[in-house]
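Sharing a chain and its predicted structure for anyone who wants a worked example. Both blocks are below, sequence first, tokens second.
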Amino acid sequence: MRAANEAILVIDVQNDFCPGGALAVPGGDEIVAPINALVAEFPVRVFTQDWHPIDHLSFASQHAGAAPMSVTEMPYGPQVLWPDHCIVGSSGAAFHDRLDTRPADLIIRKGFRREIDSYSAFFENDHVTSTGLDGYLRSRSVEKLTLVGLATDFCVNFSAVDAAKLGFEATVIESLCRAIDFDGSLSAAKAGMQDAGVTVA
């Protein structure tokens, strides 16, 4: 068992991010079994779930003529326009069926506000609107975070950088993540995490 001040953050291991899903991350299902094994080591266990309304403004389908994976400008900055994915209550939004969520102390659902996307487990993409995770972890006396899940270069990256900015000791286990690697996003994410003080193990 890890120390009492350690937590694991399991990011978005959902059907739509696994092979066959609407926004499949290559090899996304390969990490499920080793994540299940690792979760058991931690005293605090948090899972996140992308959770979008059907008309979410990060969907390319909501912007006339926009192609999926194009980038638009939102009030909070640049926004990738994604294929429709992880729609509230859909099978795509469900956790992967082999992911054991029974040990979860907390499940954070993010991206449920139509007007703003949410990559990070801590903040929406305006970097101001909090999910409440920071306060929860502090109430559990957590100081060290281990992050795993999908995708390395988006939700894992943003969560890890925010964790470091908030003063947590953050480690991303790269072998238990998978990346979209869109237009060089993986190398940029790894450099950004290291600059923020995140350990990429």
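Comments welcome. Residues 136 and 162 are 15 Å apart (CA to CA).
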